[in-house]
Design goal:
Layout: E1 9-12, H1 21-30, E2 34-36, H2 46-52, E3 58-61, H3 68-74, E4 80-83, H4 93-98, E5 102-104, H5 111-127, H6 129-137, E6 153-157, H7 161-172, E7 176-180, H8 187-193, E8 196-197, H9 200-206, E9 209-212, H10 226-229, E10 237-240, H11 249-258, E11 263-266, E12 286-288, H12 297-314, H13 322-329
Helix pairs in contact: 2-3, 5-7
Length: about 325
Amino acid sequence: MMTGDLKPVVLLSAPYILPFKERFAPVFEHYGLKLITPEVDERLEEKEIFKLAGKFDGTICGDDRYTPAALDACSPRLKVISKWGTGIDSIDKDHAEKLGIQVFRTPNAFTLPVTDTVLGYILTFARNIPWMDNEMKKGVWQKIPGWSLSECTLGVIGVGDIGKAVLQRARAFKMKLLGNDIQPIAPEFIVETRVEMTSLEDLISRSDFISVNADLNPTSRHLINDKILSKCRPGAVLINTARGPIVDEPALIRALQSGILAGAALDVFEVEPLPLDSPLRKMDQVLLAPHNSNSSPSAWEKVHWNTIRNLLKGLNIPCDDIDSIMEKTR
């Protein structure tokens, strides 16, 4: 915690909490914090962070680009980066730690809403719901064939918290389950869900639905590429609710245009917001969403407060009374 009369300055740039800054302003004031609240679309890019460097002691951020250069510019004043959410792939954590900058996040924050989204997409494609609706509204009475999920195979790439939850729910629909991960999976989970852990190539070749639930890291960037997609089972649908760069987007577009993939459901993209000229916007077999699979009032509320706690921890500000403050803001 800073000494003297100077208040610690916090850069509040997380897009999910900025709309509620008036609600949380008294909380920050209670803990003696001064806020900088820039205009943010989706994230702060490196060049935008440069303009603010040296002006703040801590930050509550979204997917802001804290590259080594940005971190160097913010050091030594910056003491803590409190990420709103789970993924910290936009922050060079190793470099931050070398500079003495603490990096916090909220693990397992959005497992339930993201899992609901994945199952929603699977059901939508299996039952052809939007396409039948579209035909009906055009005056066409056409029975489009669908599938029971019990007839389908689901492959989950990345069997972490969300991947496990997806498999557990898919099991209730009696789907055949395949999984792939670079980490060993607990034997009891494999027994419980009857998931078959297999290679990525085998999973791709046998799955009707492929759900990407891996973290973004050097081993997973462009994990889904031309070579992997060429092994897809006819009629397969790819679902990505993890991170855009896990999928080589031009390769995905080629696979959709050629019919290697029958469809895709995408909540995340290599470039966000998705460019207006992206071919994905014109594909009837593709469902798009604006990085919104985490949407959940209760999950957001949990992350709001945990992110504030993490910030205070990083600034060495006691917050034993935060629960009572939470009640006052409801």
